[in-house]
User: Fold these one by one.
Assistant:
Number 1:
Amino acid sequence: MLNPYIEVGHLCDLITNKEVKLGEVAEFFNRRIEKLNPKLAAYMTATPENAMADAARLEKASAPEIAKMPLYGIPYSLKDLTWTKDFKTTMGSKNYEHFQPRASAEIAIRMRNASGILLGKTATPEFGMRPTTEGGLCPPTRNPWNLEHTAGGSSGGAACAVASGLGPLAEGSDGGGSIRIPSSCCGTVGLKPSRGRVSWSPVVGEAQAGFATSGPIARSVRDIAMLLDVLAGAVVGDPYCAPVPSEPFAASLGKRPKKLRLGAILESAVDKVDPDVTAATEFALKAFQEMGHVVEPVKLDPAASLIGVAGLIITAGISSVPVKNEELMDPVVRGLSEQGKNVKAADYINAVAQMHNISREIIQALAPYDALITPTLTRPAVRLGTLPSSTNEALQEFFQWCLFTFPFNATGQPAFSLPNGLSKAGLPIGLQIVGR
């Protein structure tokens, strides 16, 4: 019997040593999805027949072919914002319930070419515009730790699937925290890569003035590195291109870091931080110090500096999505879209310029540090149906919850959310590590 929470490296060993067949792997996760997904709503579209077909196709590969397949036989999921030519991509919207893209996203092609087994498309709020996965076409995605609470968003289905053993690897996207928020809520590892690390081809050149990117969600940093090696790489003509690393990301895991100078931000003027979250973060900082690293508080409030321009850019971006029937939209998302329609072109251009200028100042202030440590969220997973408290307060309340995440979409820096213990109520708490 397979362990649903198996680490990818161990699963690779079982497959390589022929202790388990690919068809057995696909069938195991298909059955688990069939059993648990009705309760959790992690998947919007499960693809069991495709998973079995992938397994059957890959079983015929020769040893030399397998050696070139980094995800050989490993199950994975794609977020339902990611275009797939062979399967509908609803984007969590009733207006796109039957949308069949004319092409697959570059990252979807790369994951298939890496010879993984596609289990399905995971749930998202409409157009990925909520930090909780609810309110649109997809049923509310529930937190595996407490079904009355959200799994986070907008990659809530992806993080829920990984946390509940409905697949070991998931692709998500992050336009303000949408990989890190659900990872914090569900106790998984999530990475928002550097801007330009992962291509949006051929769907768009950039998303929300460079705010958004795609990235991996998994159960360990090692698994994240494996998936990032598959996803990473620009396409010729991309507007952003991160420097090519000197070695695969997975290879860097074998190197122990030197003594690091770490900055720490634990509070913001935008909102208060839950005491459980603060205590967990302080405990982690002590652990870093015990490992020999230097931890210094940083007098910086990125959220307060960026909240105005971020709101303008994000709402303008959502208003640009073509919608035939606005009455079918999630009222919260419709309200954000209406805000964006009121943004003038000149104001948008000025906001993008301000975002880059403020981001430059933030990065310069953080330049002396090897990494920055913050909580991922101001508080653990909220109850479903409670965020926002009203449509009019949606944007402000969203930013208050994810005030530590969205600034680094603006700066383009890479940022991890790592599991960092549990709250007194038994809900996961996340720790964010922001890189250079």
Number 2:
Amino acid sequence: MSLLTELKDKKIVVLGVGLTGLSCVRFLHAQNLSFTVNDSRQVPFAKASLQDEFLASFPQVNLVTGHWHKEIIKAADILIVSPGIDLEVTGINKLIRPTCQVMGDVELFCQINNQRINPISILAVTGSNGKSTVVSLLAYLAKVLGINAGLGGNIGQGVLDFLTLEQAVNAQAANQVDLLILELSSFQLETLTSMQAIAASLLNISDDHLDRHKTLKNYQNIKQGIYRQSKVAVINRDDPLTISPLATQELISFGSDNAEEGHFGLGVVNNKTQLMFGKQVLISLEQLPLAGLHNALNYLSALALGYSAGWSLTAMVENLAGFSGLSHRCQRIKTDDHIQWINDSKATNVGATIAAISGLLPTLSASNKLILIAGGDGKGADFSPLKTLLNTDAVALITLGKDGDKIAELRPSSIPVDSIQAAVTFASGYANPGDMVLLSPACASLDMFKNFSERGEVFITCINQLSTSVEAEL
């Protein structure tokens, strides 16, 4: 019996009606399944009118808002949980019956996909940092190579939107794909056990989401669970925390050192740092638009994943330079003030900021400095790994936000400010031509902004306003 058939006799509850929850609702509704949606927010939609639209579009859905409904949750046979919901903190885990199956949308997708005659192939990526860049690079390469691929998980479309159902016999759905490239967060991996990926990579591990996962070891174990669900494990030689006994299948590695045959690394050839496949020179870093060592590793991991899927290595390398990267990830802001302004607002944890500083410092001349703007909601992270980098002569520090003072303790000469605008204004006056001003907060943005994107946009706006005011004075 197929899972979809089994679901018809189950009490299904969708917890959370955000983007993921709405994806689940659309899918379950299309199967004519009976289910309940429960959200703790009284008005879970951005506008009341959107809630009216929801009820009009899904009239058979029982929508319960304003609290977690204990009796509904207790009665559930299938609980589909949005990744942002912490079952322990909310107390929901105490309500779940032992026979209830708890899953996320990705797990539901995988269980159904595994039963299909022609399942959609999967490449999967997780890690504390760089995963959005890597999956977006993979999606770009797939497109230029003529591979019919989709991008989903923690980015792109909801994964359930990619399913072409068996009842649509001989019909090709508009969103059908042959390959799905998945970015997976630790929250999604908590409820994922059935993925059968061609290859999967854990890019790196650093303190992140410890407010939910409690310890780095627990967070590491959750991330490493991705290896059990793939044929090929793509590991990072530079980060011992990514290497696991769970990865007992075929291994392909990448790293910043010289690589053995069949693996990816970096090498210096003709006085230029090159991406390498064993001893084979692929392309020099200076030919690629994404700067820094951390982005060199992102390139290598994407190549390793594509190679695992049977993509032409030559064709991938030929097209690498066409990918310009993602907004708010070491994004260079063009100005005429001879200062290098870098927007890395997506750096929401310590590891991302360390990667940015370590990758960008070597690009500066000996006479120039890097001015770091950091701070926000640290999510319980330990900031001490930043201390060594922050206490070098080449780095200056500006702090802000909820946990800015904790970062400031790492460097006594730091400058505290109360806004991005104040940080930009100070940095502009402090910086000399050739210096770099880097917004890489090492923290989440929710203490001051809606999300990291808004934080980055405000940073860019302040820089542009600074340029406008200078022109006005002239």
Number 3:
Amino acid sequence: MITADRPPLDRHLATRFERDGAVVVRGAVATPWLDLLADAVEENRRHPSPWAHWYTDPTAAVGFWSDYVTWPEVAQHRMVAFDSPLASLAAELMGSTTVRFFHEHVLVKESGATEPTPWHHDQPYYCIDGEQNVSFWIALDPVSADDGVRFVAGSHRWDRWFVPRRFIDHEPYAAPTTGTPDERGISFEAVPDIDGELAVDPSRYDVLSWDVEPGDLIAFHFRTLHGAPGNASAIARRVVSLRWLGDDATFATRPWPVSPPYEAEGLVVGEPLGDDPRFPVVYRASR
């Protein structure tokens, strides 16, 4: 459980997070935690898990690779998730009294890797429903706004769900289900052509991006549309995303394989996550 203290969150940041679905929090990650994350990324690179993936040719000089849900084996990820002040920050942004750790996701684009990350939002990939959620995008290297992740402000509030896309070829997981909603009344649309629409009308969307330094983090809602270009900078772009769940998290299924590929294992669709060790409670607000 959390042992470290931190200053209270600027209330304006929480308001902007609720409004825009994405905010930058400057200096949120102290150097010792960044060092642990850097060690963890190197551990993932040297000893990839069965769920690691290359989105480019792994034999190429530069590439784009990821690994995730290694916190049970990689102590450094676990220490940051369980012992740093980040879970309490997640609680404030989500407006939640409890915080569960969902998983970490390492994403590394080497310098010169041209593969973009397609526009998408995350919740349709997941076996989780609930409005109280947040991802922390933590860069271990300086990233300019031009090279970093971009967000469509307010898209988490559209009340629209989009079919997930594969990062390797940007193809959708399945056909849209518009007109045939699931048992919760949700139907899934194709992801809009954000770049194409912006080329025609630059005011069509309010796109957010920030220059970030190590120690900054970008917090965003699971349903905020986002994407990222290739890495044209002179250094690698090492990122660890930490995903958090709040009080209202429930188990869900999707019309496609979820990521992480969790089976129910006793959980019931629409019901809370209980004491399932895959979703540990790492923070409780003091009364």
